[in-house]
Amino acid sequence: MIEIVSRERCIACDKCIAVCPTNVFDRGADGIPVLARRDDCQTCFMCEAYCPVDALFVDPRSHPLPEPPDEAALAADGLLGSYREQIGWGRGRTPGAKLAVGPSLSRPGPPLTS
């Protein structure tokens, strides 16, 4: 479930608002997205994947945490934007570099390299 929108990192690009399939976010008066319908979050990670500045943290558990996580601790542990890193999205990252899910799928054309 979405837990954090970092006011320190957010650049108000609205990408998280645009990609959220369940319309969890509203644009705040200052341009920073707010969690308007947090309980509607389906933990799909689309918002975190598309955030260009790693300003979001989606907890893999699909229920709210008893207390909000500490943003500074998440940042120090490298967890803000960690899903983007795992899938290889973002400047200087190799697509799929850390993603290892399922068997290799055959497809026509030259083989994919990792």
UniProtKB/TrEMBL annotation:
The keyword 4Fe-4S applies. Residues 1-30, 31-61 form the 4Fe-4S ferredoxin-type domain. It comes from the Bacteria. Residues 91-114 are annotated as: Disordered. Transmembrane segments: none annotated. Keywords: 4Fe-4S, Iron, Iron-sulfur, Metal-binding. Coiled coil: none annotated. Pfam families: Fer4_10. This is Ferredoxin family protein. The lineage of its organism: Bacteria, Bacillati, Actinomycetota, Actinomycetes, Streptosporangiales.
